[in-house]
């Protein structure tokens, strides 16, 4: 009673005989090839949600739980242990939150300190550059003026460069 396989069976058989990816790279390659076959079909990308940064309030404590001491019933220890673990996780969460806030604060302080140091160094170099530039401009002015007349202090008479060389 063998009949020709239907189209559904052929598709299932064809899919099952495709080589299975052995590495993550092969899996990604196969996924990309599948997406490229249907280029018009929109791609659904899963969004990674950030971790919830809130924690519930502490649960009501069971004051009559004996813990692991003698005389506690068989179920009391489990209640005590679960309550204790829940509170420890909560405390750990707040400690980690405080550490991350402290690390962020320290980082911001370090960045601001580095900016201030860079600004001070840049200002110092800027002043030096301007001093050198002013000195060069003064030399150029003196050189330009020396070809005509020499600049002298008040009360002295100007001397031409040719007369200056003869007097010395």
Give descriptors for this structure:
168 residues, 61% helix, elongated, mainly alpha
Shape: elongated
The H-and-E topology, N to C, reads as: HHHH
Class by alpha and beta content? mainly alpha
DSSP strand count: 0
Mean pLDDT, as a whole number?
A: 76
Main sheet summary: none
State the separation between the terminal residues, measured CA to CA.
131 Å
Number of helices: 4
Give the low-pLDDT segments: none
What fraction of residues sit in β-strands?
Answer: under 5%
Q: How much helix, percentage-wise, in residues? A: 55-70%
> How many whole angstroms does the radius of gyration measure?
43 Å
What does this structure look like?
Helices cover 61% and strands 0% of the residues. The protein is built from four helices and no strands. The termini are far apart.
Question: What is the topology?
Answer:
Elements: H1 7-16, H2 24-37, H3 76-146, H4 161-167
């Amino acid at each position: 009673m063998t009949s020709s396989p239907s189209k559904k069976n052929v598709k299932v058989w064809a899919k099952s005989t495709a080589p299975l990816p052995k590495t993550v790279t092969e899996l990604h390659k196969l996924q990309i090839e599948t997406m490229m076959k249907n280029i018009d079909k929109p791609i659904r990308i899963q969004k990674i949600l950030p971790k919830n940064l809130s924690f519930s309030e502490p649960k009501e404590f069971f004051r009559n739980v004996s813990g692991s001491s003698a005389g506690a019933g068989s179920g009391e220890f489990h209640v005590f242990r679960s309550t204790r673990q829940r509170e420890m996780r909560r405390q750990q969460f707040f400690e980690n939150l405080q550490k991350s806030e402290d690390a962020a604060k320290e980082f911001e302080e370090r960045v601001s300190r580095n900016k201030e140091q860079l600004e001070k160094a840049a200002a110092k170099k800027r002043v030096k550059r301007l001093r050198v530039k002013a000195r060069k401009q003064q030399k150029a002015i003196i050189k330009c003026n020396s070809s005509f007349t020499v600049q002298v202090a008040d009360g002295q008479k100007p001397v031409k460069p040719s007369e200056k060389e003869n007097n010395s």
